[in-house]
Structures are given as structure tokens and as C-alpha cells.
Specification:
Strand content: under 5%
Largest sheet: 2 strands, parallel
Structural class: mainly alpha
Helix content: 55-70%
Strand order of the largest sheet: 1-2
CATH topology: UraD-like
Number of helices: 8
Distance between the termini: 18 Å
CATH superfamily: Oxo-4-hydroxy-4-carboxy-5-ureidoimidazoline decarboxylase
Length: 191
């Protein structure tokens, strides 16, 4: 039987093919007009950093989606080490495709355990734009490569991957797809 998820905490975005349609002006309008608590909760599904979510929520309204995404990037770049640790701690693994081969699951699980033992946090990688059949291989290649980083170098790489994940998840939320890879309050199944 092929597993549908990996144990541990390897965060990769949802694997189904995502549409490339930009978010609508109506979606941005709804985001700008929503109650602050609702917006913060939604933002925390994109990146598990209260500092990041508060900054984005507090600087509304945004004139356009590009301004919101620029603010998201800036807020992610400004996260302190404690904020990054908190965001990384909130990452969980989404359900992986059932047709992914078992050896890849085993290899990724072992590499994830080695990564977490070395760096003390979940491995994160953004594979947005990759076909689903390449995402698992890219994640495995990424984790193996990054295991050679020193801790400070890896902190910088992980922060950049979180920024990319947050951006992609925010776009997905604005599109109404709601396909964030993780939920702020619920761990991924099997974790």
C-alpha cells in the first residue's frame, strides 16, 4: 500500500495543478473590507506568524494585489528569528498524491528526520509552478542539498522558502481556492 502522507513535518504546498488566473479586484476588495480578526485568521493559514499577519492586516486597504504581495514580501523579510521559528513550527505536511511511489515517501521521510535533527525545525520548500509529478522529486532534491548548509545559511534559505510559500498561499486565498497547504489550527492528517 502506498502511503498518502509522510510522517513528520515537511511543508510543501498543495500539489494539484494551480490555475494562473490572477486574483480579482473583487477578492482584494473583500480582503480590504473584512473584519480584522477574520483577515488575521486567514493570513495565519498562509504563514504562521502573528507579526506577519498583523502587519498585513493593519496596513489595509491595499490599492491592488501587487501592493498586497509586496507588503507580504516585505513583512516576511522583516521577521525576527523568533518569528521565523514560530512560522516554521506551524508548518505541516499536506496530503501527498496517492500515486507517488513508496520509495520517494521513505526517502523524503528519512531526509526530513535528518533535516529536523540538524536544524531543529521543519523543512520547507516552495514548489509552486512545478507539475505535481515533479514536486516530490524537487522536494527530495532540495532537502538533500540543503542538509549541507550551515545553520545560519539554512535559516536564510528557509526564511526565503517561507516567504515564497506565504505569497503563493495568499494568492490562492485571494483567488478563493483556499488551498493553503496548512491550517493554522489543524495539523495535517497523520502528523
Amino acid at each position: 500500500m502506498t502511503p498518502t502522507h509522510l510522517p513528520g513535518r515537511v511543508a510543501i504546498p498543495s500539489l494539484p495543478e494551480q490555475t494562473r488566473t490572477p486574483p480579482s479586484a473583487d477578492a482584494l476588495e473583500a480582503f480590504n473590507a473584512a473584519p480584522a480578526d477574520e483577515v488575521r485568521h486567514t493570513l495565519l493559514t498562509c504563514l504562521h506568524s502573528p507579526r506577519w499577519a498583523d502587519r498585513l492586516a493593519d496596513h489595509r486597504p491595499y490599492p491592488d494585489v501587487d501592493s498586497l504581495l509586496a507588503a507580504s514580501d516585505e513583512a516576511a523579510y522583516d521577521l525576527m528569528p523568533g518569528d521565523l521559528a514560530q512560522a516554521l513550527a506551524g508548518e505541516t505536511l499536506p496530503v501527498l498524491p496517492t500515486d507517488a511511489y513508496g520509495a520517494a515517501h521513505t526517502a523524503l521521510s528519512a531526509a526530513s528526520a535528518a533535516y529536523e535533527a540538524r536544524f531543529g525545525h521543519a523543512f520547507v520548500i516552495c514548489v509552486d509552478g512545478l507539475p505535481p509529478n515533479e514536486a516530490l522529486d524537487q522536494a527530495l532534491a532540495g532537502i538533500r542539498s540543503r542538509l549541507t548548509n550551515d545553520p545560519e545559511e539554512e535559516r536564510v534559505v528557509a526564511a526565503e522558502e517561507l516567504r515564497c510559500l506565504a505569497r503563493g498561499r495568499l494568492v490562492a486565498v485571494l483567488r478563493g481556492a483556499g488551498n493553503c497547504a496548512t491550517s493554522h489550527n489543524e495539523p495535517a492528517s497523520g502528523s
